[in-house]
Amino acid sequence: MPGPSPAKKTLDKGKGKKKAQDSTQSQDYVPPPPPMPGDEAFAMPIREVVKPDNQLRLSDVELNEEVAKMLTANNPAAPKNIVRFNMKDKVFKLEPMVEQTVVHYATDGWLLHKSSDEAKRQMDMEKMEQEASARFQADIDRASHEHKEHGDVEPPDDSRQLRNQFNFSERAAQTLNYPLRDRETFTEPPPTATVSGVCTQWEIYDEYMKDLERQRLDEAAKARGGKKHSAAQHGSNAARTNEHVPTLQSPALLHSLGTLDRMVNQNMFEEVAMDFKYWDDASDAFRPGEGSLLPLWKFQSDKSKRRQVTSICWNPLYDDMFAVGYGSYEFLKQASGLINIYSLKNPSHPEYTFHTESGVMSVHFHPEYANLLAVGCYDGTVLVYDVRLRKDEPIYTASVRTGKHNDPVWQVVWQVDEAQKALQFVSISSDGNVNLWTLTKSELIPECLMKLRVVKAGETSDEDPTASGPAGGCCMDFCKMAGQDSIYLVGTEEGAIHRCSKAYSSQYLSTYVAHHLAVYAVNWNHVHPNMFLSASADWTIKLWDVRDPKHPVMNFDLNDSIGDVAWAPYSATVFAAVTDDGRVHVFDLAQSKLLPMCSQKVVKKAKLTKLVFNPKQPIVLVGDDKGAVTSLKLSPNLRITSKPEKGQRFEDLECAKLDAVVEVARKSDADLAKRS
Amino acid sequence: MVDVAAVDETFKRLQSHKGVLGIIVINADGIAIRTTFDNDLTVQYAALVSHFTVKARSAVKKLDGDNDLKFLRIRSKKHEIMIAPEFEKSHEYYLVVVQDPSRDS
What we know:
- By secondary structure, chain A is an alpha+beta fold.
- Chain A has eight helices and 30 strands.
- Chain A is elongated, with a radius of gyration of 67 Å.
- By secondary structure, chain B is an alpha+beta fold.
- Chain B has helices at residues 4-16, 39-63; strands at residues 20-27, 32-35, 72-75, 80-86, 93-99.
- In chain B, a hairpin with a 4-residue loop joins β1 and β2 (32-35).
- The chains are: A alpha+beta, B alpha+beta.
- Chain A: Belongs to the dynein intermediate chain family.
């Protein structure tokens, strides 16, 4: 093979080698066509012929000169001086034969010579493949033919011939399975024991607390030293005595229940409570001389329904608490008695309930020991309850043995005796006795203050009252003035009122021939020392001056039997009365001397029996003969009271108010007497 | 100790009040020992109320160490939940009454 010719060296770029060669040969440079603006993409690539600096520059003559070249079989690059060590001659000898062949390019061809061995083998293989294929095709044809003839002939097994890659052959190999053998060994079982127990969370908790306590005590004992060790143990003993109380029996739970009961009631009677606290009848401002009563809660229980309210008494300690006595005024319809103690906070259920054998006629709370409740019964017994004990039995009972009244006890009144520390109360009964009961350690000891006797109209009081027959007491009231608390008034069934003193048991201080029928209530004025009211079944209320037993100061006819009358605690001129037709009448003598400020029917189909003012709140309670107690709020016109300025006393102002009323009444009476 | 009958009677009375939906007594462990709700509601109330009460008490106590929680009233849109807790160790409990104050019967 000839070596490369060094005749011409051109450096070409890109395609068009021949053209470049031509241009080089002709030594003229053809500039590329100027690029057309906007079609650079389609412009022909720029061709440039660059001659290297060291290129031999030949003139045209030189270029045209013919250069003869000889091709030889000798490789000019082959070495000519190779020497090799000749083992035979043991000298270096020149190698005469040098490889002259230079391989410039070599490639294996794919053409075979037909007569070569390789070609023969290949032809044999092709021949075998064709035969196998033809055989298989024949099989398939025959099988499909046969299949058409007998459907159950299996298709020929084509697993040997892999027609395509989706043909698989399954191969299984059976290996030797070793037979299973059991090999057992027995050991001694470990010893077991069953331990069981039941433990509540409580017990765990208690134990923890005990442990804590013990640790604490131990530490305390360490800190204090061994000396006080015994004291610490004593402490732990004391702690242990604080025994566990079941939750459902704890008094605290009962207390909580009571509180929640009140809360629920508060929600139930929310509007009423709001009225009680904040509502005032605004229309009162436009109608002086008139007032109204707003019914609030109604207190009633299943047990009280068939009984009559015979007495109501506010608790002196708690403004919202009052006791109600239930019994019967009718001789033929007597039943067991009942006392309910209600709170305004829980109108639906009494806080305390006590049962008595006989109908309750009168109740009274002790003004200082507010838990003591004196009770008078229809059969003449008097009882004392301790409300706090919550036990349905009295702490004191006046029995036949110790002496009791023989007829209904219409009123009981506690005595507050400064000198004597013993607890005492006074009772009045239809049998004509006024008894003073003293509470000793074990029993009630009676002392007769007065035996009431009938005094005929016109008789003077200084005659011996024992001369005539006994009179039945109906009601009584002690003077509310300081220093005169031994003076009391007694109203009788015969209509007379007697002024008596605890100091003298034999004589009346004075006798007022007041009414034609039984006197149901007498009531001293709260402020004025000399004025009192009496109410009677003969439809009248009379205002009396203590010093004038002959004539009442004023008369009020209410057209029905009057159950009760009471002065208001906040004013000397306001009083209220209840009548059998279910009306409550409220008078304010300072505003109207003749007509009631308010005469309102508060119950349907029931007789009102009792009325009491709350000592602080502007409400009254009225009881009826159907066993219900209704609370009523007094409108602003019904509770006008004098506002003392500096240097004035409230009592003086109120007394003056009442005195003025009495003055006018006396004058008109005198005028009437003159005319007649 | 008080008579269980007295407690029972008060329970019945409370339950009969109008609008009262139920009463639960929960002990210190948050387990209802007495209830008028069904089981699911009871468990829910017991868990939530006891946590809430303890939380409320801790708030009160943190404000003033000598102070303690006496009662809790939660007025919600639908109900009023009243809680009377007792933290005395020997008989710790929470008494819960749920009332619907707007209900008429």
